[in-house]
Amino acid sequence: MRTVFFGSSEFAIPALKALVEGGSKPALVVTKPDAPRGRGRKIYDAEVKLAAQELSLPCAQPVDPHSPEFVADLRRLQPDVGIVVSYGVILKPELIALPRLGMINAHASLLPLYRGAAPIQRAIRDGRTSTGVSIMRIVEALDAGDVMLQKETAIGPAENAGQLRERLAELSGVALLEALALLAAGKAEFVPQDHQQATYAPKVEKEHGVIDWSLPAREVDRLVRAMTPKPGAQTRLGNKRFIVIAGTVEQDLYGMGIPGALQSAGEEGIRVCTGKDLFRITRIKPDNGRNMTAGEFVRGHHIAPDARFG
């Protein structure tokens, strides 16, 4: 089958590589234009474009994929199916209907759970023990298309969003190859989602990562894992801001601490009182500083006896 691949973030790259390695080489890769990044606003090559070049695949970077010129170019390719993985553009009906078999999308959740931009963070934040990848037909409504297949995977008890994202990106490639095989054989079956069961995971913003130490330590742990590596779980100590990278939950035998107060700080970690139990920080990063162990942090910073995170 002749396919066209749409993707923009690094999440799309493992799926693109899997398609090539699995014998389903796209006729065209479509990604966003090169864009400025960082304080210097230097123009950097789009990540998916670089991956396409490494794989010797033709690549297009339309400013507007719905422009008459690009749609005409795509129509001349006569694609059988469009494949979308983390493209970041809401596709319009004309483009959705252009491939002979329509467009399919690899979404990082078990739909109808967690439609939207941040399904991985939300699954961890909500304490889910499993998630997965759904291959669905793209329709106008956000992540509401009929589902062809799903691949489920457990969420590790200490797994953060970055680690889970990498695994789901790889799983997307496996699922897409299976989906294309079913389409080619005429055996694909699409099942409507139960829209009444739908939940949503809107984009995570920086302010969503502020730690509320009055919450139970278990919820603090989920927040830290959900916000790592981006946008980061934030807290303050005095007038300085820090990003908590990792930690563990420990039972508080006394239960008398004020939320945010430090029970102890040493090589083994920084024990912080919460609304229930303790959260032992094992890795922390000063704002604009480097990621370090709790022991390194304690050795390099003066911590007052009455210090309190807030």
Walk me through the structure.
The chain contains eight helices and 15 strands. About 25% of the residues lie in helices and about 25% in strands. The chain has a seven-stranded mixed β-sheet. Strands 10, 11, 12, 13, 14 and 15 form a six-stranded antiparallel β-sheet that branches. About 40% of the residues are buried. The radius of gyration is 23 Å and the shape is elongated. The termini are far apart. With about 300 residues, the chain is an alpha/beta fold. The mean pLDDT is about 95. Helix 1 runs parallel beside helix 6 and helix 5 runs antiparallel to helix 7.
Pick out its properties.
single chain; 310 residues; seven-stranded mixed β-sheet
Query: Helix- and strand-based class?
Result: alpha/beta
The largest beta-sheet arranges its strands as: 5-2-1-6-7-8-9
Helical residues, percent: 25-40%
Tally of alpha and pi helices: 8
N- to C-terminal distance:
56 Å
What is the H/E order?
EHEEEHEHEHEHEEHHEEEEEEH
Rg (CA only): 23 Å
Shape descriptor reads elongated
Return the average pLDDT rounded to an integer.
95
> Residue ranges: pLDDT <50 for 5 or more in a row?
none
Proportion of beta-strand residues: 25-35%
Number of strands: 15
What composes the largest sheet? 7 strands, mixed
What is this entry, summarized?
With 310 residues, the protein is of the alpha/beta class. Helix content is 25%, strand content 25%. α1 runs parallel beside α6 and α5 packs antiparallel against α7.
